[in-house]
Amino acid sequence: MHVFYAPKIKAEKYILDKKESKHCVKVLRLRKSEPVKLIDGEGNLYDGVIAELNPEGCVINITNIIKDYQKRPYKLHLAVSPLKNPDRFDWLIEKSVEIGVDEITPLICTNSEKKSIRPERINNIIISAMKQSIKARLTFLNPVTSFSEFVRKDFTGIQMIAHCSTGYTREHIKNIYSKGHDAVLLIGPEGDFTDDEIREAISMGFISIHLGPSRLRTETAAVAACYSVYFLNL
Q1: Could you give the CA distance from residue 51 to residue 158 in angstroms, rounded to a whole number?
Q2: CATH code of the region 3-66
Q3: Is residue 199 within 8 Å of residue 191, measured between CB atoms?
Q4: Can you tell me whether residue 232 is helix, strand or coil?
Q5: % of the chain with per-residue pLDDT over 90
Q6: Residue 173 near residue 228, CB atoms below 8 Å
Q7: Mean per-residue pLDDT, 109-120
Q8: How confident is the model at residue 1 (pLDDT cuts 50, 70, 90)?
Q9: What is the DSSP string of 48-113?
Q10: S-S: 170 plus which of 17, 40, 201, 208, CB 3.0-4.6 Å?
């Protein structure tokens, strides 16, 4: 079944934007009266039928709505350092959205080799991954934020910092995270968090965790952490 992103659906008919319409007509070559699904990014999944094919604005008749489609019993906020290799960061974003994450904050740390991202590019990846995995709620991309600024914010749920330093007591994530609770996860850059950053996070209520005995790349650790929270909620 083909899925299209359709924000702010308010009526029984919806006109896809130019980008989605072009994909529908020129790429997928769908036909009039074919069934499709729409997601609004607010948690709702719609069944629809193509009423009019137009690469400038396809008209979809809405036939059914499932509210709060596959709503998770928790919220997950992933704060992760951008990577020097943009392809790896793109992969990280894609897979974390497919698993399920509510917010992503690009986190600038002492050892971060890259200090910026391209928000438009990342948001396009988020939307594509949301459609691919049929997630009805859009992952929110926060602005790039410094480590100190981020850890000093007020959060709800269980706050965790994953790192490889052996100078601190670290618990496996399964021993810290509890099913049904919101979670905030800090994942550091290629060179890991510094001792000063770990101490600062701990002083602000973050708990040191690890994801197993292997030393993981940033992108692998981020995806593993997201999946761990997802798995612990099954």
Answers
A1: 47
A2: 2.40.240.20
A3: no
A4: helix
A5: 98
A6: yes
A7: 96
A8: confident
A9: EEEEE--TT--EEEEEEEETTTT--SS-EEEEE---SSHHHHHHHHHHHHHH--SEEEEEE-TT-S
A10: 208
Phi (first) and psi of residue 19, to 5 degrees: -65, -50
Q: Where are the beta strands (DSSP E) in the chain?
A: 3-5, 13-15, 35-39, 45-52, 59-66, 76-80, 103-108, 140-141, 145-146, 158-162, 171-172, 183-187, 207-210
CATH architecture of residue range(s) 76-232: 3-Layer(aba) Sandwich (3.40)
CA dist 141 and 130 (Å) reads 13
Domain spans of the chain, in order of start: 3-66, 76-232
Structural tokens at position 178: 């509890």
**What pTM was estimated for this model as a whole?**
0.95
Average pLDDT score, the chain: 97
pLDDT per position as a tens digit, 145-180: 999 999 999 999 999 999 999 899 999 999 999 999
CB 79 within 8 A of CB 109: no
Classify residue 16 as exposed, middle or buried by CB count within 10 Å of its CB (0-12, 13-18, 19+).
Answer: buried
Angstrom CA distances, 214 to 80, 164, 198, 200, 227, stand at 19, 9, 19, 25, 16
